Every structure is written in structure tokens, then in C-alpha cells.
Amino acid sequence: MIKAGQIEKGMALLIKGAPFIVVEREFVNPGKGSAFVRAKLKSPSTGQVLRETMKTQDTVEDITVDDRDSQYLYNDGENYHFMHTVTFDQFEIPMSSFENYQYLMKDGETYRITFWGDIPLDIIIPYKVVYEVAEAQDAIKGDTVTGATKVIVTETGLKVKVPIFIKQGERILVNTETGEYLERVNR
Amino acid sequence: MNKKSILQRSRLYAKTRTHFTGKGYLEVETPALADGLIPEPAIHVFETSFTSPFHPSSLCWLTPSPEVFMKQLLAEGSGNIFQISKCFRNSEQIGAYHNPEFSMLEWYTVDADYRDSIAHTEEYISAVAPSGTPEHLLPPFRIESMHNLCFSHAGIDLDKLQTLGKLRDASVRLGISESDTPDTWESLFNRIFLTFVEPEIPQDHPLVITDYPAQIHCLASNKATSPYKERWELYAGGIELANCYTEEINPDRVEEFFREESAALAARFDVPNAPIPDSPHDYHLLFCNQEKPFPPCSGTALGLDRLLMLLGGYDTIEGVILFPISARL
What is the CATH number of the domain that holds A17? Predict the structure, then answer.
């Protein structure tokens, strides 16, 4: 058990018997009110999102989790399929719980998966990832507007707004939380 | 160190002074060190002590707002006053929007109520916003009552939920979890507001939330024949920026407030060993002087670091505070 004031992003908590991952956590002091902890929690099995505002001194049940390196194999439209890199055990995670992760994960790449016992709770994607530009229209000649952008598609299908000079086949660094282009990566 | 923010702060303060003095307000300076504060159980304070070889030592506290002193000036007949002051709040989160030492603009307008203060605040923001300030930070403000916002976003009718039992029933329906310590009406209301309403407030223009529940105790006057207070809070960019009252000037109600809140302060337990400041028990006498009646007035307090952050396009107040405490602890 921990105090609500100790909750941190990424932590796993047991809420009414079900595991939830903390996706957002902030302290709030409403005008003329005492401090509360506001958290956004997500159920990995159902994708259900829960908002909780607790007193900082309230207790919550934290659960012990461990991270296991697992290779992302493919998705079948309903589930992401992974294989544990040590035991070669295969498991699946519902796509509805991690929407749009198919555009962030690369087939065959290894990701850290947070487990609670045998239940996978969270897929950890690095904050910054290099993607290859699979589809990009050529810049229109004469378009010299500073800061002009276009939308490209990465090899994973992620659509990213990039500066106009980015070409097909080039590699770019992307913030996976916001989906924003960060920089071009030189070969 | 952000040199640009030093310049921006200097300009903001200069414009603030020009604006208020131009409208006939008197700039005042009151102590940051007080021997007694308005009892506010939700606020934690910094405690220190006066020591001297010639006097007995005594406890004193850094002011969490200049209200306790500015009202004494109003009682003396100061007329309209404003102040830019350092304020101190302990035990709050440190980070994006909080620093334990911060700058506050507080002003009082006599013969005005909280509605008048909305217009005054719009004028102030217009006067100090640099050209190019994005529209979502500029007047006209949106104005919504707390009742309507709760109805729209949480589906509850506050008018009908004025008892703890009824509010608790509503909170169970909304899925608010049970707390380890019994919720008061105020804490339950705050949990509903923070869960369902505050995250959804529109950000296309600054929003004034009016008519806070009277069950959240404060020194705002009651709104006639309603369970609400003449109080508003201003949100800009989704951030709480200012708080305003039609000030309570009825001495009996002020005395009652001091008595009840002092007791609540003494019973507070959320932070172990937190200092409990003294409160001036005769404060209500300020409002009893027959010869010099306390003027009806409205007071507004606005966080200058947050305003500077918003107007300067910074993500956190740490960008505008030199030596923020988060960088030192």
C-alpha cells in the first residue's frame, strides 16, 4: 500500500481488484481547497480509462510488476502478438488497450513489456524512435516558404508532419508521445 | 537563467503599475512577515520566529497573501488599492505551476462587486498583454457559473445536492471512489469538480467560473437567496490564474468564519507537524467601526508568475522565475 501522494506515472495500481496503469498524475490545489492527486488510469485488459481524484493521504494498492523484453511479431487486427525473448513464450495484448501502437512499433523489434504475474500490463515504447520515411511527396519546386511542412508516412504507417526537405528513404527521429518530428537522422 | 523573462517581468510590472495608478488606485506595500493570518485550513505556511536580546521571542509567519493587511488599509479609508507582493505557500507541489514563493497582484475596488471585477480584470489583461498575444488568453472572457459547468460536465444539479448525503449519492453514481477519511461536502465537491469539470473547461478564451458553493468557506459574501458565494476564479489556458470575491463585510459573518476556520485549522492533519499560524481573533472589529464603516468592495488576487508564463508562451512558471526552488532542492 502507498499513499496517493506517492503515485507516479507508469506505476501499476490495483483499483477495485483490477490492475490499472497510471498514465497521467498531477497534484492539484483547487482555489481555497486542500491538495488532491488527480490521476488518469488505464486498464491494459479492457482499455478502460479511469479518472480518480484522491486526497494525498488516501492509501492505494500498488502492485509489484516486472519488465520482460519481448519481440513484437505482428498484429491480427485485434491483438498485438509478442514473444518473450528468453522463454520464447508467445502472448497477445488487445489492440484496443493500446490504440495506434501498431503505427509506433516495428515488426521484429524488441520492446519492454510490464507484467503483473502472467498478465501483460504495459508496452513501453522509447520516448524517441528513429523511423524510415516510406512515403513522401517531393517538395514542390519554388516552394520556399520558411517553415513549410508536409505529411509523410513511416515504414510503420505513422503519419508525421515534417519539414518539406525530408525525402522518401530518409530516417527521422520522432517523439512517440506526441507523434511530432524532432530531427533528420544522418546515415 | 532566462534573461528574456527578466525583461518581460519588468515590462509587465511597469504596465501593471501604469494601469492601476492611471485608474486612481494607490500602490501599497504591506509586510511579508505577519504575527497572525486569516485562518485557511487548505493553506500551509512558512513559520519563523522573531528573536531579540531585548524582547521575548515570538513566532511569525510569511504571508500566503497580503489580504490580512490590505483589508486593514481599506478599513482605514485607503480607497482603491493594489499591491505586487511576494507570497509564500508551503507543502504544495513544486513544479510546472507552483513555486513556494511566488508573486501576486492583489487589488481592491471600493463600491464594486465581483461582477464589476470581471470587467476590471479584462481591462487589466488587455492593458498588459503584449501585441501578438494569442486570442485564447485575451478578453472577452467566457463567463460560466459553477452550477452550469457541473451540470454540463458531471450531469449534476448542485442546487439540489446541498447536503452531504445527497452529494455522496451523486458521487457514488459518478464512480468517485471512497476516501480513507470521511469526505466533507467541500472535499467531495472538489473531487467531483477536479475529476469531471476542470479537465474539460474550454480554453478558446479565458474562462471565469462564477458563484462557487457557499459550502467552500471563504471571505466572499453570500449570493442572495442561493447556496453560492459571490466569488469567481479565472482560468486561462486551462490554468487557474485569479480569484475574486465580493468581500464579506458583515462583522458577525467574519467572526464566525474566523472561529470555524481556526478550529478546522487546529484539527488539520494532512501534513505531519505542519505549523498552525495564529489568527487575529478580533479581526471582525475592522468591520464594526460606526464612524468609519468598512466600504463595500471587491478584491482580486492574480498570480503574476503564471500570467507572465502564459503571456510569454512558456510551458512552466519555472521559465519565468529566477532560481526556482525545483532547481535548488
Answer: 2.30.30.30
Are the Cβ atoms of B93 and A27 closer than 8 angstroms? Answer: yes
ipTM of the complex: 0.82
* Residues A13 and A51 grouped into a single domain: yes
Pairwise CB contact (< 8 Å): B179 & A30? no
Task: Confirm or reject contact between A165 and chain B (CB < 8 A).
Answer: no
Q: Where are the domains of chain B?
A: 3-134+253-327
Domain residues for A10?
A: 2-62
Inter-chain touch A35–B218, beta carbons under 8 Å: no
Which residues in chain A are contacts of B191 at CB distance < 8 A? 36, 53-54
Kindly determine whether residue A53 and residue B40, on different chains, have CB atoms separated by under 8 Å: no
Which chain B residues contact residue A5 at CB under 8 A?
none
Torsions phi, psi for B92 (to 5 deg):
-90, 165
Same domain, residue pair A72 and A42: no
Contacts of B190 (CB under 8 A, 6+ apart): A30, A33, A34, A36, A53, B216
* Residues of A whose CB is below 8 A from B186: 33
Same domain assignment for residues A80 and A48: no
CA-based radius of gyration for chain B? 20
- What residues in B contact A38, CB-CB < 8 Å? 194-195, 199
Q: In the β-sheet with A128-135, what is the strand arrangement from edge to edge?
A: A159-163, A149-154, A128-135, A171-175, A180-185
Q: pLDDT value at position B273?
A: 85
A59 near B CB under 8 A: yes
pLDDT value of residue A46: 79
CB contact under 8 A, B233 and A38: no
Q: Are residues A153 and A103 in the same domain?
A: no
CA distances from A110 to A2, A41, A158, A173, B215 (A): 32, 25, 18, 18, 54
pTM for this one? 0.84
Domain count, chain A: 3
From A99, A124, A149, the end of a domain falls on A124
- Contact flag B177-A54 (C-beta cutoff 8 Å): yes
Find the mean pLDDT for residues A15-42. 88
**CB contact (8 A) between residue A35 and residue B92:** yes
Say how many CB pairs under 8 Å bridge A and B. Answer: 76
pLDDT at A187: 63
Chain A residue with CA closest to B209: the answer is A31
- The residues near A137 (Cβ < 8 Å, ≥ 6 apart) are A150
Give CATH superfamily name and number for B3-134+253-327: Bira Bifunctional Protein; Domain 2 (3.30.930.10)
Last residue of a domain, one of A109, A124, A139: A124
pLDDT tens for residues A146-163?
Answer: 678 889 999 999 999 999
Average confidence (pLDDT) over A169-175: 93
CATH code: domain of residue A85: 2.40.50.140
Q: Which range is least confidently modeled, A90-94, A171-175, B95-99, B284-288?
A: B95-99
